Amino acid sequence: MSGVALSIRNLHKSFGGVCATDDVSLDIAGGELHALIGPNGAGKTTLISQLSGLLPADRGTVIFNGRDITRLPAHEIALAGLARSFQITSIFADMSVLDNVAMAVQAQDGHSYRFWQPARKDKRLRQPAMEFLQRVGLADRASSLASAVSHGERRQLEIAMALATTPQMLLLDEPMAGMGPEESGRMIEIMQSLRGEKTILLVEHDMDAVFALADRITVLVYGRVIASGSPAEIRANADVRRAYLGEETDPC
User: Fold this and answer.
1) What does the angle CA 45 – CA 158 – CA 30 come to, to the nearest 5 degrees?
2) Using CA atoms, how far apart are residues 48 and 173, in angstroms rounded to an integer?
3) Using one digit for the tens of pLDDT, what is the confidence trace for 125-176?
4) By residue range, what is the domain housing residue 122?
5) Which of 166, 182, 210 is the endpoint of a domain?
6) Radius of gyration for the chain, computed over Cα atoms and rounded to the nearest angstrom
7) Could you tell me the CATH number of the domain that includes residue 132?
8) Are 74 and 86 members of one domain?
């Protein structure tokens, strides 16, 4: 791991009297797989939305690779190399799996979607698209319609599309939600293969996966960071255990 890739300082967002993120400060090192965990309603998705530019912060700053991206729109943040998977990725159900990834490659190159019909036959798009599908274990599903793939394969496709934008950092919001053990195992393998290559912020409820994958873990409760450290430190933290037993109260 290298220096700090993402630096969050005093990030705050309220909805009425509810603090969704409450002065969150956090540093994520380059190449680190950093997990963000917490009970339901802790503010995890709100934080991811702020980082990706989908939700403006009330106050605070977000620095990505030395650049202040706090007020940038989502598309500029994506072009800066910070990609959010799943919630901002659009899958076109009536297109093939390969076409979906080729379209993501095309978008990264800055081409207009108006030229998609001739571009879908362009080897300059399809060859890298196939490589991304191989990376996530979907090469044998390349010609299948996206509407025909399973839930787990859809999540793999979304990872491939995110990778096709050549990001430096991935924001993954519950990639294993709704998956069975076999599908979860494949997703864990994909994320293991990306460790050290991409900086990753992972929001996930599967604690077995979190503790198997994460270099560091941050725990969010009612929008506040209550602990941040190695998996061993988080396991031993009494505040974390209390939070998961429901003993924390909302400060707002």
Assistant:
1) 65
2) 8
3) 889 999 999 999 999 999 999 999 998 999 999 999 999 989 999 999 988 8
4) 82-166
5) 166
6) 18
7) 3.40.50.300
8) no
CA-CA-CA-CA torsion sign (218, 82, 153, 93):
positive
- Within-domain flag for 193: no
Tell me the whole-structure pTM to 2 decimals.
0.88
90 with 159, same domain?
Answer: yes
* 247 φ, ψ (degrees, to nearest 5): -95, -5
Beta-carbon neighbour count of residue 135 at 10 Å? 17
Q: Are residues 58 and 91 in the same domain?
A: no
CB of 179 closer than 8 Å to CB of 86 = no
The pLDDT tens digits of the residues spanning 27-40 come to 999 999 999 999 88
Is the CB of residue 145 less than 8 Å from the CB of residue 95?
yes
What is the distance between the terminal CA atoms of the chain, rounded to a whole angstrom?
A: 37
Residue that terminates a domain, selected from 111, 142, 166: 166
Give yes or no for residue 229 having a pLDDT over 50.
yes
Distance, in Å, from the CA atom of 19 to the CA atom of 134, rounded to the nearest integer, reads 42
Q: Which residue has the tokens 């787990």?
A: 152
Q: Which of 229, 148, 251 is nearest to 240 (CA)?
A: 229
Q: Which two tokens stand for residue 41?
A: 């309603």
Tokens 């900086």, residue located: 199
Q: Which two tokens stand for residue 155?
A: 């999540």
